[in-house]
Task: inverse folding
């Protein structure tokens, strides 16, 4: 048996270490050949982008002065934008006119039950009552919430399209049967068409969302009721 001295074992270990170092160096040479740069480490830092110049928010704004005074120049960032109005005169006008307009429709609709012999016409009258009574309350609440009342729109009795005269209402009240049906359909058709015209006006000029929704409903519902009343009257002939 061959016996190695301590010195011999040390020499062998050193030789093995040298072999390992040489092998590692050779492997590195294979993966990164001489002259090739090592890949740069990736980063998540965003690269800068050149953006086109933005308009100057402090550009001067010319403000008209009072009568006889010169205009004043101010920077835009010194100006406070005016708040957008939540409602305007067109909205007030529509609401204050539609309340008495609806009320007259209710007066005529309540006459149908005792004076008409047409069951289909009675159904239409009941629908008018069921729709316009709650709408009156909604319109009144709209005024109250804004510190307004029925007089806020001014005197516009002459401008409420489709409104029937007191004499016409008296004739309708005195009529019965088929005569009543013809008068009712004719008067209520004119009345509904007047409401549709007023709704179209506020849809074009108003800005309030609630009023817009109410006016849109008037156009759709009362237009459908006009067609239905005419069909009922034609079928009864």
Result:
């Amino acid at each position: 048996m061959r016996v190695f001295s301590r010195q011999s074992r040390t020499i062998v270990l050193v030789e093995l270490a040298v072999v390992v170092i040489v092998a590692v160096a050779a492997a590195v040479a294979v993966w990164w050949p001489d002259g090739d740069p090592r890949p740069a480490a990736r980063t998540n830092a965003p690269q800068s982008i050149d953006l086109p110049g933005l308009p100057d928010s402090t550009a001067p704004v010319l403000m008209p002065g009072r009568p006889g005074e010169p205009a004043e120049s101010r920077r835009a960032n010194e100006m406070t934008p005016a708040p957008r109005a939540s409602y305007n005169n067109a909205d007030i006008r529509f609401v204050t006119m539609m309340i008495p307009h609806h009320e007259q429709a209710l007066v005529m609709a309540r006459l149908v039950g005792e004076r008409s012999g047409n069951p289909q016409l009675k159904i239409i009258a009941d629908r008018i009552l069921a729709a316009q009574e709650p709408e009156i309350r909604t319109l009144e609440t709209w005024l109250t919430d804004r510190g307004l009342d029925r007089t806020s729109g001014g005197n516009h009795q002459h401008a409420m399209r489709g409104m029937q005269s007191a004499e016409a209402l008296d004739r309708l009240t005195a009529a019965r049967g088929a005569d009543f049906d013809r008068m009712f359909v004719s008067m209520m058709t004119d009345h509904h068409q007047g409401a549709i015209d007023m709704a179209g006006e506020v849809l074009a000029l108003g800005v309030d969302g609630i009023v817009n929704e109410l006016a849109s409903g008037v156009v759709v519902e009362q237009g459908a009721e006009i067609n239905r009343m005419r069909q009922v009257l034609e079928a009864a002939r």
